[in-house]
């Protein structure tokens, strides 16, 4: 099997994966076995509560959920040799291949219903992720809805982020190789947007930087940094004190509908800011490749809350704000609509709550059945319990796709197991209220053209 590809194809685009197929071993309530693949299965109508018959047309509700098993892997060298302890939450390291775990950002894929999903830096830190290759995978969630559906996620080809032209101004883990594949020891990619020509813009936490890649993952330019903003993981500190806390860089980044402007948000406050609830949002011109100097200010509901991701609607942003909890300690994670026009009397952008992800109405019980004994937060209401809910995409109208990033092997949905990767589909009335019309629809690039033998 050539490197750079997953298992032999199931269809023209997607391939079965051994971890996805492990779902076949689950109880019969999850799905039926037919010619070696999962078939759609709906919860019997008699198991749905009477509350499910009353549609809450003016309130948010869960309309779909799909889960990628935590043990999903793709071709590549072993990963996790630096993870301590070597066994945790049912996962033993190192892994024989590269894990496909946790996505910090999703954008539209090549075909309807598919997405390009970018992984985080790996296992939670720069030190333990040096053998984790930074990739973006083509995925197709097969959402379980009130009409059926398997609730699984098909994983297709991937592209590898790399720096063969030595654009980064520091040595990387794979410094002496031809392709210079980037690892979680080099960058911490937290946000992804597709540019006007299919190019890829990535928000990073180690700088923090904005990184510009071509559609196949090749770094095109040196990193773009905000003057005076440097994290403890910035390799160019040269002994100077950091001005941004660790892991509080460009977590969320949105692109305007016309593709001309990025909005990159710091996940946390700067070290020196007397208001630790302030989150700076920096405007960046994709045409001139410079920060414009315009800085917006978003106020979190508590100083320790994080701006986890954003999506642009033109004159508005959709923003995910969350706490640091996971599982039963995940008490706050909400999605807001933010206006980019007039600010309040304190100079902060105005925000309106759209949905509370700790209590999403699930009248049709599409979050059931549980995949593992002991799973929490399922049923009506449904709760997003992963520690890092870090991906949001306005997919159509008032419908949101929300995805979880997991620093393998942390737990959330189940206190005894490492988290699977979840995608949930929400109907959220009012998402686009007052938003500017989209001026440009960027055609997705073909990820298949970017897959090659790079290892």
Outline of the structure:
The protein is an all-beta fold and 455 residues long. A hairpin with a 2-residue loop joins strand 5 and strand 6. The chain has one helix spanning 18-21; strands spanning 32-34, 37-39, 61-68, 73-74, 87-88, 91-92, 98-99, 103-108, 115-119, 135-142, 152-160, 189-194, 200-204, 209-213, 224-225, 250-255, 261-266, 278-285, 290-299, 306-312, 316-322, 333-339, 350-356, 388-396, 399-405, 421-427.
Structure write-up:
With 455 residues, this protein is an all-beta fold. The chain has a single domain, classed as Tachylectin-2, Chain A (5 Propeller), CATH 2.115.10. The protein is built from one helix and 26 strands. It starts with 17 loop residues before the first helix and ends in a 28-residue tail after the last strand.
Question: What's the layout of helices and strands?
Answer:
Blueprint lengths: L17 H4 L10 E3 L2 E3 L21 E8 L4 E2 L12 E2 L2 E2 L5 E2 L3 E6 L6 E5 L15 E8 L9 E9 L28 E6 L5 E5 L4 E5 L10 E2 L24 E6 L5 E6 L11 E8 L4 E10 L6 E7 L3 E7 L10 E7 L10 E7 L31 E9 L2 E7 L15 E7 L28
Antiparallel strand pairs: 1-2, 3-26, 4-7, 5-6, 8-9, 9-10, 10-11, 12-13, 13-14, 14-15, 16-17, 17-18, 18-19, 20-21, 21-22, 22-23, 24-25, 25-26
